[in-house]
Amino acid sequence: MQYYSTNGQTPEVSLQEAVVKGLAADKGLFMPKQIKRLPDSFFNNIQNLSFQEIAFEVAKAFFGEDVEEEALKQIVYDTLSFDVPLVHVNDNIYSLELFHGPTLAFKDVGGRFMSRLLGYFIRKQGQKQVNVLVATSGDTGSAVANGFLGVDGIHVYVLYPKGKVSKIQECQFTTLGQNITALEIDGVFDDCQALVKSAFMDADLNKHMNLTSANSINVARFLPQAFYYFYAYAQLKKLGKEKNAVICVPSGNFGNITAGLFGKRMGLPISRFIAANNRNDIFYQYLLTGEYNPRPSVQTIANAMDVGAPSNFARILDLYKNSHKDICAEISGCTYNDDQIRATIKHVFDTHKYLLDPHGAVGYQAVADNLKEGEVGVFLETAHPAKFKDTVEPIVGPIEIPAKLQAFMRGEKKSIELSKDFETFKQFLLNE
Ligand SMILES: *Cc1c(COP(=O)(O)O)cnc(C)c1O
């Protein structure tokens, strides 16, 4: 499969090049040239398939031309070594729990898949040492770092905004050592993302080292996120609840929802999507006005969604050929402030005995406020509430910390502090 750039100013590239480069030379995002429709027979039988079986069929549609079937199967099965259960919350509302992986957030899916695919290219085609740059608003860094930990031929640099991720999130990528370096940037997430993008565009750095990105700008990170939309549908179908299904995605950089939109293009019968924002509601404003006005992000308690210039917006525009009308026909939006998020966590815990994390709470509330008669709503529970202990405990009281998280918290933090100035960052990498 060839991949084109959303900016259309560079030639198409192979999957390997798209994965290793991360971002196209014209600063566009790579898009697969084709989005294959899966056959009716697949959807008719989907409720009888396992998560791994479903994911493998979806993976073949994207990567089947470029990765041998057995190797691809291995990558998919290895990646999805945990379940993504659909859990009933109340009425017609279900939570798709994406936090059962090693770092307890949905980014484990893309992080693990990408690390394995890159490892495959390195082994098979003698790709030289690859340096992965990843900007994180909290959860990407840990998923990517843990996915790549100890993989030969790969070094990971995690850039994160100093003081703006939760303590638990921070220890998941600052305590690992080995081939993982944590860079604490004196700025906000958007500064980290800008540093990564500038690094890719910098000729000296590219001469010095082989750079790639593991943010959702990378096709190997974001396409695999389509897997669990299909699995959510399969689980709804098993319950006889698949008609008029609406999926709500708590969104920041918009990689996750874009993967769902790809799923719909592949034939997945989802009637519509809701993109739920915190106060960084650039996309919501776009839906209202037709104008895209990125602005500096503000800090919220749903910090992994504190994004002021969502990268994957370019992919959504491309997918809908810039038609605001077509985008509005399939996606609606919502926005909630911190007080509303807290109130949702409290209400859902008290009334329905279900503990939401701040991101999932944004998703739940958007479904609760928007579901129409006869629709069934699924919101993505994107991270485990214990990752946001300091926010959640004052609302609901003491919560249990899963053993997986406690293990991370015992490690010693190691990070390098840098300013948000690109020259400093560049010199640091040139000295590596
Ligand atoms: C990254 C993240 C999001 C936002 O996902 P995008 O793909 O960036 O839109 C939402 N919730 C959590 C917990 C996250 O880690």
CATH topology of the domain at 54-103 and 222-399: Rossmann fold
Low-confidence stretches: none
Gross geometry: globular
Percent of residues in beta strands? 15-25%
Question: Summarize this, please?
Answer:
The chain contains 20 helices and 13 strands. It is an alpha/beta fold and 432 residues long.
Description:
- This protein has a domain at 54-103 and 222-399: Rossmann fold (3-Layer(aba) Sandwich), CATH 3.40.50.
- Helices cover 45% and strands 16% of the residues.
- The chain contains 20 helices and 13 strands.
- The strands form three sheets. Strands 3-4-12-9-10-11 form a six-stranded mixed beta sheet, with helices on both faces.
- Helix 5 (107-125) runs parallel beside helix 6 and helix 6 runs parallel beside helix 7 (167-174).
- The model has no long low-confidence stretch (mean pLDDT 95).
- Bound molecules: pyridoxal-5'-phosphate.
- Pyridoxal-5'-phosphate binds at residues 105, 107, 138-140, 216, 250-256, 304-305, 359, 382-383.
- Pyridoxal-5'-phosphate binds next to helix 6 and helix 12.
Q: What's the layout of helices and strands?
A:
Layout: E1 3-5, H1 15-21, E2 30-32, H2 40-45, H3 51-63, H4 69-79, E3 86-90, E4 93-97, H5 107-125, E5 130-135, H6 139-148, E6 154-161, H7 167-174, E7 180-186, H8 189-201, H9 203-208, E8 211-213, H10 219-222, H11 227-238, E9 245-250, H12 255-265, E10 272-277, H13 282-289, H14 313-319, H15 324-330, E11 331-335, H16 338-352, H17 358-370, E12 376-381, H18 389-396, H19 403-409, E13 416-419, H20 422-430
Parallel strand pairs: 4-12, 5-6, 5-8, 6-7, 7-13, 9-10, 9-12, 10-11
Antiparallel strand pairs: 1-2, 3-4
